[in-house]
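Hi support team,

I'm opening this ticket because the web form for multi-chain structure prediction keeps timing out on my end. I have pasted the exact lines I submitted so you can reproduce it. The total is 1013 residues across two entries, so I didn't expect it to be a heavy job. Is there a limit I'm missing, or should I split the entries? Thanks in advance, R.K.
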Amino acid sequence: MFEPIIDIVNIQKSFKKGDRQELLVLDNINLKIYEGEIVAILGKSGSGKSTLLRIMAGLIAPSRGKLTYRKQPVAGPAHGISMVFQTFALLPWLTVLQNVELGLEALGVDREERRERALKAIDMIGLDGFESALPKELSGGMRQRVGFARALVVNPDVLLMDEPFSALDVLTADNLKSDLIDLWQSKQTGINSIVFVTHSIEEAVTIADRVIIFNSNPGSIRADLKITLPFPRSDLDPRFRNQVDRVYTLMTTLPQDERMPEDKKRYEVIDLGYRLPDASVSEAIGLLELLNSPEHQGKMDLPDVAETLMLDIDDLFPLTELLEILRFADVSKGDITITNEGRVFADADMLQRKKIFSVHLKKYVPLARYIYDQLIRHPRQRALEENYLSLLEDYLSESEAERVLRTVIEWGRYAELFSYDYNSGVLSLESPH
Amino acid sequence: MSFLRTTFVTAYRSRLYPNYWDIIALLFVLFVITLFASTARQMVTPYQIGETIPISLNVAALPFYAARTVVRMLIALFFSLLFTFIFGTWAAKSKRAEQFIIPVIDVLQSVPILGFQFVAIAPFIALFPNSLLGPECATIFVIFTSQAWNMAFGFYQTVRSVPLEVREAANMLHLSVWQRFWRIEVPFSMPGLLWNAMVSMSAGWFFVVAAEAITVSNQQILLPGIGSYIAVAIKAANMHAIGYAILTMFIVILIYDQLLFRPLVAWAEKFKSEQLTTDKVAESWVIDLFRRTRLMRDVGGRLSRLFDAFVNIRLLSPMGYQIASEQERKVKQRRLTIIWDIVIFAISVGAFIFLTYYVARYISLKEVLHVFLLGLVTASRVFILIAIASLIWVPVGVWIGLRPWAAQIAQPIAQILAAFPANLFYPVVVIFIVKYHLSPNLWLTPLMMLGAQWYILFNVVAGATLLPKDLLQVADNLNVRGFLRWSKLLLPAIFPYYVTGAITAGGGAWNASIVAEIASWGNDTLVATGLGAYITEYTNAGDFVHSALGIGMMCLLVLAFNRLFWRPLYVYAENRFTLG
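Hello R.K., no limit was hit. The queue was backed up. Here is the completed structure from your submission:
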């Protein structure tokens, strides 16, 4: 009972980047999964949480550290561990029944038994009547049910789920979640524990007994929270709101800032290769305007912001980060507060806003400043994007470098700091004729 | 239709500039060609091909000849499929194999197809002395080479594009390599594979006709088939026979289209994963028959049970997915890399030395320059033809594509025309030239484009069909007409499709030049100046050194034009003008 099912000791994972460099994705992970619990791994996008799940699944080998499943070291997908995928990963040319049978086929189960077990799993997950349908005939929710049936039919010991609800709309996801919890509590599946990855705080608090909160860059475990609320959990319950608030606070406060009094909070100074958040200017401005509106008086609870704007943390945190980097808002302890500069910006008209934005961009985003300075100095005020790309690749992975450059170009274009030609990949100071 | 475009030329997206692997592949292919040519030189004596079956011009014999030709096609298709499965998968699965296989296939694609016959015929005759089996195998090999490369390429591309999560799911479910291949990789690439096979078959019909009757060392070899029938009819200057042959071929292609190709495409619909397709779902009366009648359904059910058993053969089963620890892999990798590098290096150095020695020994620099100039002549023919065909077919294609009813009629017709071996029509043109004493240099030229032009047409039609209605409505709303409408809306929207069509047509024209630049009727032989005629003349004379030189030059030129012109153009079109 007290032996962990999955035991992760000091795991580290880095990916090769370019010729000699390595990019550290996971660092110093220690985690034990016990029998009878649902564990949520919660983190921002790119925090390495999916990588950790795939290491547990035996799909990716860790660079360092030890991983055991039922005391056996893991080298490849273990029998007894099933997985449900974000995009369902169904084979479109197989019917629901054939898709569910696939795992049994691989195990060499004969035709009759295969059919019987598959039908039982389909029945259990509420798909009866759809046995002969092709996946493309089904809605997203029904497709994910097929994904569940396929994972359950092999009688797994542990079920791993990679953002299983994030491709579904809210109603469908809620419906599927409550069915999953019912199934889990009725104990008719034989599953001993569930581990799932999510970027939705509410989802984690709704389903899990334990929430593992991840830090980014590199991914590491920030906190391990027990959620002891009884099922079914309601998001109207004040205790539930309390837990959600706690998680937001943990996710928006840096460990070193935790003990500091509110007014002493210092801004993080970012460097040239900083992983700029994937935030669009117009959305960030929308958020600022919401904060500045009379009804909120410049301060909001982050869970409220998420609810009002219908954003999950992967959409929301980049926006708050951009506002923080530009000193338009402060984020701390689960709250966001507008700064004086932010207020001036929000009250300004369109042209003034661009000017203010441009000043802040040059002042607080080293990459934007660097590009601008280089362009000013260049005799024809032009530069190739490749220069900056290779510069960023010293700090980031190839795809991240590209994304960061796109982001800074978007910001720079909005601020009219520089312009960019898509066809030639040239950045310049000139405005188009 | 859009599928054809995406899979057929995906190769053009990946790499823009040649890296050293391309050069190694080129050296390797040229080396093999030259090696064959040099061994062929040893066999100066005329071939002993044993008893030949005389080809009769009797109409009653035509169905038999047609059947022989079709069987050749099917055998070659089978081998192409085998090649595709083995090498396509291998390249997709192993990085090391990919580095070598893909550039080699790419170079092979640019070798003139009949060139393969000239290098293959000697070894095959040596393999089966005193029988027609040698030339027979060489002919099948030629058809194989006209099909295999683009099928393997397309398969490799689609296998690699199986979504990561599907691959992970397969690992989690412990599918064996064998099960994975039949359950995931083959179905996933099925629609693309079929379209590629269709394009391949079209090329195949052309070359089966050209390859059945060949002259080697001044000795004509005739294999029973439609191609030989035509050759004999040309020699006898028999116009009626040619008319019958054209009619027979037409019926054969129609049957092939209705009974084999269309049902397969309709069946392959189920392998497409998109939920909603804007393309019209392919239909076939044959497949409907299969799905709706009880008897046929039973047959289908039994077949699928058989396939099930085949996929689950125990022998080839469990070999689960294992992840090696990083250290283990590194050590293993380093050792393999060193061995691999040494082998590749040795081969390239060897090939280089051999080629240099060979060229220096047998060929003068003047000759090389002469062949190069001939190549440029043929190249300019190809470009002028593409330009003329574009001027005609782009407006027609857009007109058809914007009218769904017209597209529905025109699309299958264009496909059949593209599949029809255009060389059957050559005699008709040649009679005309002979009769009016026209210049072969000018009038033989259009023959090269006779078969290839349809690719431009049906790609443009496909592009215009997919043009979003709202864009057309906006143009109407803003009163954008005439020149402005063409330059700002229509041409940019079809541009990527047009480029695909033009690339395919260009490849076809190069290949056709070997047959088209030299033609005869009765005792008159017309020769146009060009690389194609050069290759044909020297091969007929049994001079393998010069024909190898010509083939190598054509390969180089095609490769150069692809890399320096078509590929950049394709990438540009993809980035800039792809809708949505």
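A quick check on our side: The beta strands of chain B are 213-216, 219-222, 518-521, 524-527. Let us know if the file doesn't open in your viewer.
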